[in-house]
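Deliverable D2.4 — example input (structure tokens):
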């Protein structure tokens, strides 16, 4: 196990040579595969992606990170809709994505 020194109480941890996508893409894909079976979990995660993307846009953050969060949310939305068994669940999942991301870009997909 590698230990990375970080000052106590520090909110930031910098991993040199490692970007967000490289660190989180695979685990978040695995999460999508598990969460898609549960509409309420999918909706909650889509909301979390949207909220974080909105924050990053407001802060003038990385367009690449915002695009990645949007893609993660879209992929989760599409996957969850594909496996949902009830029309209302499919509607709610689509609505969560639209509500979270339309306000940022003016489009749904």
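Example output (designed residues):
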């Amino acid at each position: 196990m590698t230990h990375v020194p970080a000052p106590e109480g520090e909110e930031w941890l910098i991993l040199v040579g490692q970007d967000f996508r490289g660190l989180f893409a695979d685990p978040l894909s695995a999460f999508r595969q598990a969460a898609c079976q549960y509409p309420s979990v999918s909706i909650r995660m889509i909301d979390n992606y949207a909220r974080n993307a909105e924050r990053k846009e407001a802060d003038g953050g990385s367009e690449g990170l915002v695009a990645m969060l949007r893609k993660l949310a879209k992929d989760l939305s599409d996957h969850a809709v594909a496996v949902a068994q009830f029309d209302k669940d499919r509607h709610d999942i689509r609505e969560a994505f639209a509500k979270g991301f339309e306000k940022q870009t003016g489009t749904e997909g």
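The chain has a mean pLDDT of 85.
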